[in-house]
Write a structure and sequence with these properties.
single chain, alpha/beta, Spore Coat Polysaccharide Biosynthesis Protein SpsA, Chain A
């Protein structure tokens, strides 16, 4: 068990029936160059082997919380915000891969820019077979305006200030919960985007289906 008083970052990852890619995602966080974090994994009533996969890791930075029943992504994330041991929270999803320097570079940015409340990064998209096919970088001069209408902020890249997120009401929608939160934060706080790929963003059948609905 690590000392919660000395933790710089809480990595928050909800998990629900994520056995297919979960091991790789967990390993990408544990192998970060930045070491002083807790890895808060909230298991949301999975019916597959997700719990067994999480428990197969012995790293003391992992803090596993199990919901008694499935709460859904919004309630689970809000629970994680309340349980986090640090002011800085880095989001992570159970099917993506954080590049080794992700946490280090985001933490350094917050240290140099304490007025920032939310920080995202560029991503490299890849499919379920592991084919990396597109780097998503953006013109930062347009970032604010596109964040209002069609967000470039990918949820699992974000690191945010917990106090700011709580002040705007945390996650408050069960659909597009991330976009709703960003829209509230950018109206009151400074935010920024590191235009460097620090996460491999998996495009699954579910994500493709959602894109067709928009």
């Amino acid at each position: 068990m690590i000392d919660s008083n000395s933790i710089d970052i809480t990595v928050l990852m909800p998990v629900y029936n994520a056995e297919k890619y979960l091991k790789e995602s967990i390993e990408s966080i544990l192998n970060q160059t930045f070491k002083n974090f807790e890895f808060l994994i909230i298991e949301d009533g999975s019916t597959d082997s997700s719990v067994e996969i999480i428990r197969s890791f012995s790293d003391p930075r992992i803090r596993l919380i199990q919901n008694e029943k499935n709460l859904g992504i919004t309630a689970t994330l809000n629970k994680g915000i309340e349980l986090a041991s640090s002011e800085l929270i880095a989001r992570m999803d159970a099917d993506d891969i954080s590049l080794p320097e992700r946490l280090e570079k985001q933490f350094d940015y917050f240290q140099k820019n304490p007025e920032c409340a939310l920080l995202s990064t560029a991503v490299r998209r890849f499919n379920s077979e592991g084919t990396k096919n597109k780097i998503m970088e953006h013109n930062l001069e347009h970032f604010y305006y596109f964040s209002i209408f069609n967000t470039w902020i990918k949820h699992p890249t974000v690191m945010f200030n917990r106090s700011a997120v709580k002040e705007v009401g945390k996650y408050s929608r069960t659909y597009a919960e991330d976009f709703n939160l960003w829209s509230k934060i950018i109206r009151k706080y400074n935010f920024y985007h590191i235009n460097e790929v620090l996460l491999d963003y998996r495009i699954t059948a579910i994500i493709k289906a959602c894109k067709k609905m928009l």
